[in-house]
Amino acid sequence: MTAELTTERLLGLDALLSDEQREWQRRARQFATERIAPVIEDDFEAKHFRRELIAEAGAAGFLGMHLEGYGTAGADAVSYGLVCMELEAIDSGWRTFVSVQGSLAMSAIAKFGSEEQKQQWLPGMAKGELVGCFALTEPTGGSDPAAMQTFARRDGDDWVISGTKRWIGLATLADVAIVWAQTEDGVRGFAVPTNTPGFTATAIEGKLAMRASVQCDIVLDDVRLPESARLPGAAGLSGPFSCLNEARFGIVFGVVGAARTCLEVAIERSKSREVFGKPIGAMQLTQQKLADMFVEYEKAMLLALHLGNLKDAEAITPEQISVGKLNNVREAQKIARTARGILAGDGITSEFPVMRHMANLEAVATYEGTDEVHSLVLGRALTGFAAFR
């Protein structure tokens, strides 16, 4: 029995899923293993994102799949989470792509856009014919969006936006950027066509994680937009925060996929690597490590599923999403590090995916809320005191 079948049998996840949810998981696993896995090590090494696969992801229904109408799939939250898990089991960069496109850019338009904006952007984005990005984070403080310095001022009937954004996924590929800016009336969102004069996106170089995806700096130099570009339903930081919660939910499931891959690789390697005359998997210390890894993987998966069911029941809270993001990323990091140790020196080579997952998980731990931020979210919920400042 392969490690994959062993972990799936022990977990028994199938019994907790509907036929539709299992079908989404199967479809995502097939796409990830057939289209991404054969090229991901080369792409990570070459810092290459395969844009040609975007339309295939759209045809599979993965883009904005949790939304209703406008060519989206209207799938439930658990199904979306399972797709995130299967994509991230191969590489975090591809789950990030689906997250940025669907949970951030498309969700912002679906939640807060005008009917004209929805018709203009969402069908093409669902098909993968158009790409979106979500420009919130700034160079001086991703964890404090209330301090954003990007500003949109009125000039007659137009808006003029100036400022900078950093770590914006897909920006050099995007057709539309959802830009959040301060105004005289508070934070507002804008759907900015990326060919608008004054908009410049530059890919960030030197990354040691997320190398098979694209993150960028953005400069907005007096970008002039009509009033029709403003998202009319977005007022204040509740707008971007609601989109961030959608993305964080995908992470809760996604990192379980990375953990599962690391665990399965460690199991297989423990059977074939021999030390002191027998496979290391026959030694007690190794079995203890594998057992601990599996237990944490199982708990993370069950937590993700619980949160997915809460989300489908429209009963989930931001604090509960923080629990999932904080715990599951943390445990995935531990599982990846333990797997790397079981693989010994070979674990740092591209012969195995573990070191790549370790690097990517370091990035995932930082974005969509650091450990510290999510800890303070939970601390506030537990004590009633806000300790962010």
UniProtKB/TrEMBL annotation:
Residue ranges of every copy of the Acyl-CoA dehydrogenase/oxidase N-terminal domain listed in the record: 18-129
EC code: 1.3.8.6
Keyword Flavoprotein: yes
Keyword terms, alphabetized: FAD, Flavoprotein, Oxidoreductase, Transit peptide
SUPFAM superfamilies (UniProt xref): Acyl-CoA dehydrogenase C-terminal domain-like, Acyl-CoA dehydrogenase NM domain-like
Keyword Transit peptide: yes
Cofactor dependence: FAD
MF term (GO), any: fatty-acyl-CoA binding
Domain Acyl-CoA dehydrogenase/oxidase C-terminal: residue ranges: 242-382
Catalytic reaction equation(s): glutaryl-CoA + oxidized [electron-transfer flavoprotein] + 2 H(+) = (2E)-butenoyl-CoA + reduced [electron-transfer flavoprotein] + CO2
Database matches in PROSITE patterns: ACYL_COA_DH_1
Top enzyme class: oxidoreductase
GO biological process: fatty acid beta-oxidation using acyl-CoA dehydrogenase; fatty-acyl-CoA biosynthetic process
Domain Acyl-CoA oxidase/dehydrogenase middle residues, every copy: 133-223
Pathways per UniProt: Amino-acid metabolism; lysine degradation; Amino-acid metabolism; tryptophan metabolism
Family statement: Belongs to the acyl-CoA dehydrogenase family.
Name of the protein this chain belongs to: glutaryl-CoA dehydrogenase (ETF)
Annotated source species: Ruicaihuangia caeni
